[in-house]
Write a structure and sequence with these properties.
The chain is α/β, with parallel strands linked by helices. It folds into 2 domains: about 5-15 and about 260-350, Aspartate Aminotransferase, domain 1 (Alpha-Beta Complex), CATH 3.90.1150.10; about 20-255, Type I PLP-dependent aspartate aminotransferase-like (Major domain) (Aspartate Aminotransferase, domain 2, 3-Layer(aba) Sandwich), CATH 3.40.640. Helices cover about 35% and strands about 15% of the residues. The strands form 4 sheets. The protein has a 7-stranded mixed sheet, with helices on both faces. Strands 9-10-15-12 form a 4-stranded antiparallel sheet, with helices on one face. Helix 5 (about 105-115) links the parallel strand 3 (about 95-100) and strand 4.
């Protein structure tokens, strides 16, 4: 009897929930109008988009007018950082971020450095957390933006976003948060946390790939990256991808309605997986005493066993990812673990659950 292969790489991507797919399907061939068209076909599509905007806003406690649809978190990150910097250049040219951010943030900041902007990359402690005193001391009169991710995609550590936002607000600096790995896994409330801009991506919580959103608090002005037909109040030109937007909306709706049940299910799975590694003397659970999202587990394999070899041995049982970055097939030490002072990330496995 064939054993079912278990998927443990949900931090990379998740399957589309069948209920999400069912909601999307009519917008491919039945309600197919261009949402910018002023006829009944277009108006039906536009209504569906605005409904999805409300659903996404409700998930993070925002106003629907503060939600802008993008092709995903990477585009949203570029739009938020580059767009805010360009629109508000008179406010300064110094950005603060963290060494363990996603490459979408780090590469954007490196690009801006090549254009003459100054970037401070904050260190993290051995648990991946920034030092709030270091953040405060890094703020200068010309600091224009602080960018810190809510949850790290490799280790699952949750930053103290509320305190970071309070510091940014006190110093009059706008705060942007990459919440790609947080939304749907922990409660995210942009009002309570006082977040100025935040991004999310549908395929991280059972929505389709190729669709995400950027939250921009009312009153914040940014310059568009993509110019075109004036969609998204002029911030993101291009024909609306109605099926994917509808799918993102439904995924957000399900994530909000089913949050408690999903987290309970994930927590039960996590307990079983941790027991599997510990009882079989396969590995040690990293960051066990720290505040992490329930769905990401970092495991250091024992006896120096390489994660690649371990996952190859287990490839008929489950799929997971290594703790190292893989670019074009070349396995490299993870920049996240390097920042933590860990240089043997090739022996770390990331298990991520749905």
């Amino acid at each position: 009897m064939k054993t079912e292969l278990i998927y443990y790489d949900s931090a990379a991507t998740t399957p589309v929930d069948k209920r999400v797919l069912d909601v999307m399907m009519p917008y491919f061939s039945e309600i197919f109008g261009n949402a910018s068209s002023n006829h009944s076909y277009g108006k039906k599509a536009k209504l569906a988009i605005e409904h999805a905007r409300v659903q996404v806003a409700d998930l993070i406690n925002a106003d629907r007018e503060e939600i802008y649809f993008t092709s995903g978190a990477t585009e949203a990150i570029n739009l938020a950082i580059k767009g805010y910097i360009e629109e508000n250049i008179e406010k300064g040219n110094h950005i603060i971020t963290v060494k363990t951010e996603h490459k979408a943030v780090l590469n954007t900041c490196e690009y801006l450095e090549s254009k003459g902007y100054e970037v401070t990359y904050l260190d993290v402690d051995s648990n991946g957390l920034i030092n709030l005193d270091e953040l405060i001391s890094s703020i200068k009169p010309n600091t224009i933006l602080i960018s810190v991710m809510y949850v790290n995609n490799e280790i699952g550590i949750i930053q103290d976003i509320k305190s970071i936002c309070d510091i940014a607000r006190k110093h009059g600096v706008v705060f942007f948060c990459d919440a790609t790995q947080a939304v749907g896994k922990i409660p995210v409330d942009v009002l309570e946390d006082n977040i100025d801009m935040l991004c999310l991506s549908g395929h991280k919580f059972s929505g389709p790939k190729g669709i995400g959103a950027l939250y921009i608090k009312k009153g914040i002005q940014i310059t568009p990256l993509i110019h075109g037909g004036g969609q998204e109040k002029g911030l993101r030109g291009g024909t609306y991808n109605t099926p994917l937007i509808v799918g993102l909306g439904e995924a957000a709706n399900l994530a909000r309605q089913e949050y408690s049940r999903r987290i309970e299910k994930i927590s039960d799975k996590r307990a079983d997986i941790e027991s599997y590694f510990i009882e079989n003397k396969l590995g040690l659970i990293n960051f066990k005493d720290q505040l992490t999202v329930p769905n990401i587990i970092s495991v250091s394999l024992l006896n120096g066993k390489l994660a690649e070899d371990f996952l190859m041995e287990k490839h008929k049982e489950f799929i997971a990812s290594t703790g190292s970055a893989c670019n074009s097939g070349i396995v490299q030490e993870s920049h996240v673990y390097k920042a933590l002072g860990i240089y043997n990330s090739k022996s770390i496995v990331r298990i991520s659950l749905l």
